[in-house]
Each structure stands twice: as structure tokens, then as C-alpha cells.
Design brief:
Helix content is about 15%, strand content about 40%. The protein is built from 3 helices and 12 strands, in the order E-H-E-E-E-E-H-E-E-E-E-H-E-E-E. An 8-stranded mixed barrel has the order 1-4-3-2-6-7-8-5. Strands 10-9-11-12 form a 4-stranded mixed beta sheet. The longest helix is centred in the N-terminal third of the chain and has 12 residues, at about 15-25. About 40% of the residues are buried.
Length: about 230
């Protein structure tokens, strides 16, 4: 199986506009508006990290009453790293690898975002269900014919390091290897850490990977109606 690449990193926030200000103060770079996810009640801002990866700030649509998945981000008292995505063009292979481990999957299904210029962008997503690793396990994305977000703007910050820690690191590592993800899981308290090189120096963004709305069930975070295995 071809190795997966680190596609993007997700920062959850209860207030997208304040999160943009926070990131700009921290790094000296202002994220650009990505667009709205139809039906999910969420919107995002993006920062290219170069080399095919980017950072996504996601929360409720600014100026609207939280709804759908957007309600889940109300619990983020401050912006926090909570999940990551890996890029793949072989989602069926990843799905089989997970099934062989006795794990459930959701998808592949099509995700959508309406960009700031009104275009609808689409992609395919595969998620992992029925587990207790939270955001320490990625979801997998195939951008198909949609231009990759990292290529839409000139990168002003760059990726330095991404690390995951978890109390059951050995089990987590087994899943990484089965998926073709060349990354080490470290023993410790559950944590995601992303280190970036920015105009204001090297910065660390962390989170514990908590996704309380996921509840280790067999549904898709971004498409609750999907229950495939």
C-alpha cells in the first residue's frame, strides 16, 4: 500500500473570527476564508503550509446561529488542534485495511464546500468508526479533480513537525502501519502537536484530540447519515 501523506490539520473554535485574530497574532499570518460546508453549519479559514498540506480553522458559520455540526464547536473555549487528515487516492485499500483489523468505517462519501467565489468544491472522505482514539486517528481524503487547498494561496508558514501521543500508543501505531501512514505514535497523555515555522518564529499548536460529539459510534462526523462498514 502506498504511504499516506499528511494532508491537513484541523483547529476547532467556537468563534471563527476570533480564531483568525488569534492565529494572526501568534504567527503574523492571517488565514484566508475558505468557504461554507453546505448542510453542516460550518465554515473554515485556511493557511497553506506548502508541500501539499494546509491548516484548517473550522467552526460555526460567522454571524449565524450554530446548527448541525457547527453546534459541536461551541465547547471549544479556545482554538485547539483536534484532528488531522491524510491524503489518499486509494480509499478502498484503506477501508479494506481497517476492516482486516476489525474496525468499522464510514464512507467513502462526498464532502462539499462552497468557496468564497461561489464555486462548489467536492472530495471523497473515509472515516474510521467505533474507536476511542478521538482525533489521534485521521480521516482520509481524496481530492479527486478539486484543486488542493494548499495550492490556492502562497504559503506564508511552513510545516516543521507533527506528533501524536496516546496512552495506547502501541495499538495506535499498529493502525498507522496498516493504513500506510509513516508516523510514530508516542506513549503519553492524549495530545496532538503541530509545530510551524512562521514570520514570528517557531510556534507550537496543541490539542487533546477530543471529539465529544463522535462518541465512538459508527457514523460519519461530516455526514451523520453515513453508516457503511
Amino acid at each position: 500500500m502506498a504511504n499516506l501523506n499528511l494532508d491537513h490539520f484541523l483547529i476547532g473554535t467556537a468563534d471563527l473570527e476570533k480564531a483568525v485574530e488569534w492565529f494572526a497574532t501568534l504567527t503574523g499570518v492571517t488565514p484566508g476564508f475558505g468557504g461554507i460546508h453546505p448542510g453542516a453549519g460550518t465554515a473554515n479559514y485556511l493557511v497553506s503550509l506548502g508541500n501539499g498540506s494546509y491548516l484548517e480553522l473550522i467552526g460555526s458559520i460567522p454571524g449565524e446561529k450554530p446548527r448541525g455540526l457547527g453546534k459541536a464547536f461551541a465547547g471549544f473555549q479556545q482554538p485547539g488542534l483536534f484532528w488531522f487528515a491524510t491524503g489518499s487516492i486509494e480509499l478502498s485499500e484503506q477501508s479494506k485495511a481497517l476492516t482486516d483489523l476489525g474496525m468499522a468505517t464510514a464512507g467513502p462519501f462526498t464532502g462539499r464546500r462552497r468557496s468564497s467565489d461561489g464555486r462548489e468544491l467536492t472530495w471523497d472522505i473515509l472515516e474510521i468508526g467505533k474507536h476511542s482514539f478521538g482525533g489521534c486517528l485521521p480521516f482520509m481524503i481524496d481530492w479527486k479533480d478539486t484543486p488542493h487547498p494548499s495550492a490556492t494561496v502562497q504559503p506564508a508558514v511552513s510545516f516543521n513537525l507533527f506528533e501524536v501521543a496516546h496512552p495506547h500508543a502501541a495499538h495506535l501505531q499498529k493502525i498507522y502501519r496498516a493504513l500506510g501512514l509513516d508516523m510514530e505514535a508516542h506513549e503519553g497523555v492524549s495530545q496532538l502537536e503541530l509545530i510551524l515555522d512562521t514570520p514570528r518564529g517557531r510556534v507550537s499548536i496543541t490539542g487533546n484530540g477530543s471529539m465529544p460529539w463522535f462518541k465512538s459510534t459508527k457514523y460519519s462526523v461530516f455526514n451523520p447519515g453515513s453508516t457503511s462498514e
